[in-house]
User: What shape does this take?
Amino acid sequence: MRNHKLHFLLLLLFIVAGMSNCTQEKADQKRDRKIVANPMNLNYRFQYDGASRREAADPVIEYFNGKYYLFASKSGGYWSSPDLADWTFIPCKTITTLEHYAPTIMVMNDAMYFMNSTSPKIFKSSNPDIDNWEDIESEFEFQIAGSVDPSFFLDDDGRVYIYWGCSDKDPIIGVEVDPKNKFKVIGEAKILIEHNQDKYGWEVKGENNHLGVAGYNEGPAMIKYKGKYYLQYAAPGTEVRVYGAGVYMSENPLGPFTYVESNPFSFKPGGFAAGAGHGHVFEDKYGNYWHVATIKISERHMFERRLGLFPAFMDNYDELQCHTVLTDYPFYIPEEKIDFTKNDLSLGWNILSFDKEATASSSLPDYEIEKANDEQIETWWAAQTGKANEWWQVDLEKKMRVEAIQVNFADHNFTNKAEDPRPYYQYIIEASNNGTDWDLIIDRRANTEDMPHELIVLDEPLKTRFVRITNTKDMDGNFSLYDLRVFGDGLAKNAQKVSDLTINRDKTDSRIITIEWEPAKHATGYIVRWGVRKDQLNNAKMIYSENEFEGRFFNRDSNYYFSIDSFNENGITQNNKIYEAPKPS
Assistant: This one.
């Protein structure tokens, strides 16, 4: 009998050890991937017109000659990458219109073409790794309205079109051009997308689409899928968290176009870094779709912005969608074709640092210590100086498994201008189990790269309670952080499910829907999901601490379906119950 028990115990130990090894293998496999988190970690250039701030917006990416090339407004150049994770900056002087807004690029006949706002000039390069662009002396002319936010589109029959538009009054325009005749216009330009803020709440101006008037419809871009044309546009404005992107569809590149009811397809009104408007959908080398888009800060200046990269896909109804809600958490860049309808690329690492007790060497009024872990990129902590040995630390309250740390520097009181060299931070990050004895885990004392939003994945997971960052180089301005974000697993129980939702659709304005729920036990926050079909809840908002939600961005005449998940530092607790907010009868 004893032998049977012994054999059983040995077998149990063998199974547990196998499970442990399997878990560790899965963790190691995660580290073998390229792992990123929004905002994209780029050497964003400073602008100075009364306030020094970084700016990049209106991005476009194309794959060309084995690399991805990323262009964005006001950047003084562009970036290349072999993998969508690691980017190399290429300064540029030969594109004489580079300082205009809203670039567009197109790959055609082994060359890349460039154009941007307010000028019909078009430039060409067969090797964008070097700054040697050629002005082709374009004969293109803008027609009807505006000359801003242009976008190229090369159809699969070789015909080329240019779209443009950026206005709270004027429409989105399109026209065919002749690439063999210096892009001279063929035929008449056509009006393709008009403002419809009375029907579509997300087009209404305001931080919560609350101002009652049309916002800006802007930034058109085109892709083709299964013989149909998908004309994208952004609304209502770059300075608000509800900045998103919608799409119209057509059988022809110049319409007529039909609004897609599930709009906006790219939308991120919540979380740490919000906004997913004015961008560009492109295919990677494996055939996966992505949307590169504009993220809002807009505190020191309306045009204080960053870039975000979002997995995009065609849903079961051949409608364009994006995963956005967890993309300011770590996610991986695939090296194969992925079914994004079933995989959002997230790694299951949770935010551990939110709203935990924090301390610091010093702080300025209005830039308090707790603003470096409040999950709001619009707020930040600033030390009293930029001298070495200024520090900030967070107490996770107990030992947790730390997988990665995202360092988001806020550049407080910097005076940098566009022509100045990019700055760089030097610092260390330490961990402690008791707040007294510290171990060095990240060493950036010799760093000379500008990495304002670096996601650092630890070589191995680390169980620790305290995390501290210390400045090691005297610098102009103040040592400051939008947030120091710690990711991993709290090693405890998930939050309870939300028990029920109360949904109210405004009777006088059906674009407005409010939701309330009882707080779930142990929840840090919630993810509210919605869509126009029960099986397609592709839009979502992450909400911290609160138990209510008001959205003014819904279609006036659509049914909506909702669900809600709870989350904490241990994971997401899904709730599969679907709630309906029907359209007015």
